[in-house]
């Protein structure tokens, strides 16, 4: 089974250690001077739930569902360097042409190298770049890196996973730093909190009930409006199977 991670960086990012959001030991050994974070929520179970959630994630559904406005999208070529791939026997595999996937409504999946401006949700609009995408049989996602320094900067990897026990989970993990006033300053800590809350809200936007609500509210009058989300990081999310689950970890 071949696994692929496609990366694409055309211009310098506003942070170091580009791609480190995918490191298995990120929470223990984050890039120097950064605050790592990780959050997970169970979305349900089954292949259909995985397909629906991953399609939503890869077509800006998580961002839009969290009240963010997606603007100035410049599509990446998706044919970026993806590293050497190996088959099950450890033999190098010759890269093929990049596959283009589409959501249920025909919207193409986000590709590596794509840039956009995300605003709303109580935050100033930020310029971002998709630094890599994850396209595995049971794991789909994208890593978003900052392209400006008007707030917390860093990288966040959003993934939907279809686990062996048939459960479907959404996870975000990454690292952030507030350059203007440092991690110990009040303004810096506020910037970090808002960025982590936004990441968490995007995960919860993939929950079945949240996705259905967002679709029902997607009227011309509602377009561009933001949604106020209560700050309750200690409360677990509720999935469609009736189980309470979800975690939020950050190392200060």
What Rg do the Cα atoms give?
Answer: 18 Å
Which segments are poorly predicted (pLDDT under 50) over 5 or more consecutive residues?
A: 1-5, 7-12, 79-86, 92-97, 219-248
Biggest β-sheet strands, sense, barrel:
9 strands, antiparallel
**Strand-and-helix sequence, N→C?**
EEHHEEEEEEEEHHEEE
Assign the structural class, choosing from mainly alpha, mainly beta, alpha/beta, alpha+beta, or little secondary structure. Answer: alpha+beta
Strand content: 25-35%
Please count the beta strands (DSSP E, at least 2 residues each): 13
Please tell me the overall pLDDT: 76
Number of alpha- plus pi-helical segments: 4
Categorize the overall geometry.
globular
Helix share of residues? 10-25%
Give the termini distance in whole angstroms.
38 Å
Any overview of this molecule?
Helices cover 17% and strands 33% of the residues. It has 252 residues and is of the alpha+beta class. The strands form 3 sheets. Strands 1, 2, 3, 6, 7, 8, 9, 10 and 13 form a 9-stranded antiparallel sheet that branches. The protein has a two-stranded antiparallel sheet with strand order 4-5. It has a two-stranded antiparallel sheet with strand order 11-12. The N and C termini lie far apart (38 Å).
